[in-house]
Every structure is written in C-alpha cells, then in structure tokens.
Amino acid sequence: MSERPFGEALSDEVLTRAAQLPVKPDPVILEGKRVLLRPLDFERDIEPLHARSNGQPAQLGERSIDAYDPDAEVWRYMPAGPFATSADLAAYLRGLDNTPNLRLLCVDDIATGEQVGAVTLMSNFPEHLKIELGNIWYSPLVQGTGANREATYLMLAHAFGLGYRRVEWKCDALNARSRYTAERMGFTFEGIQDAHFIVKGRNRDTAWFRILGHEWPDVKARLEAMMG
Q: pTM score, two decimals?
C-alpha cells in the first residue's frame, strides 16, 4: 500500500507563534492618513456612531448627507441593525466586544477626530495562525472615501506583522459591494458556503475570501499604490 500524503511540517518558529498569540486579540491603536483604529469606548463612542448610522442627516467636516435608508446603506448584510436607539447599538456592540476571540475597534476620521464606523479582528484561531476581518461598517459619510481601504490595510499589516499565516474576509454572497471590495483590495475568492447562517430570519450563503502570508507583500504594494 502506498504511503498517504502528509501536510508540510512547519518550523519551530511558526509553531511557537501559534502557541503564544492570545485568543482575544490584544488592544491596539492603528493610525493611517485618513483613519485611526482604536478600542471602542462605550461611554464616548456610542452616541456619535449611532447618529451617523441611523438614517438621519449628518455632517462631517465639509461632507454632509441627507436622510437615507440605514438598512440599505449600512446594516442590510450585518448580523443586526438598523438600531432605533443608541442603547440598542450599544447592546449589539457590547455583545461583539464580549466575544472571547474578537477585538472590537472604533474607526475615527483623522481630519475631524469624529467616529465614523467600527471593525473587528474576529474568529481568531491563533493555534492555526488565522484571523478574520469582519463586522465592518461605516457611516455613509465616509463610504467611498478610501476609509475602508486604509482601515483594511492597517489591519492586514497588523495581523501579518504578528505572524498570522491567513487573514479571512467573509460576507453574504448577495453583498455585491463587499465582494467587489474584497477582490479589488487583493483578497482571493475561495468559494461560497451554502446555507452557512440564518440572519434576520433569512438564509445566508457566505462568500469566502483570504490573503495568505506569502501573498501579503504583493497585496501590500497593491494597496499602497491604491492609497497613493
């Protein structure tokens, strides 16, 4: 009988990293030219985040938006939302913050110092050196401004700098905007997992994307060129 194939043996250095990284990602501050990512402060951040994501007119520096549909523009493909009150948003975000293998970060617009969205380092499995960027949402005030691109770049650089081998991006298979964004930023599409979740009483098929450690230098250069 022929010998069965066996996966590549990993170095002691890789296995040491896998044993040492925490399950709950450490608090971190990541600063770019447009955005600053930092641990969310529930006392300071909830009211402005709610005001900029609940459909009411809002302003950020010289940018302004009229009333809009918060479901269509922000929350359609998220696990929860829209939120009628800031307390409802706080309850949702606190549930994320209490997840054992997730780190919730607030996104600030550097030019104004104002809160414009939230992201997470989630589904962290340090024993496999893989982590996901998820629960990503922004006020319409900064959608299309490059804020998400820079925030993603900062999180990717942080994760690969820590020694992760795989960073994932997942979204509802119907979320064409998220799928386009992932591929444009350099994530590789891996396929669709059918009937993955039930979200808001509806079926969700999930599109999977990833970047691997050896791909990061090329993706990094691509993102830096896009950001100028």
A: 0.97
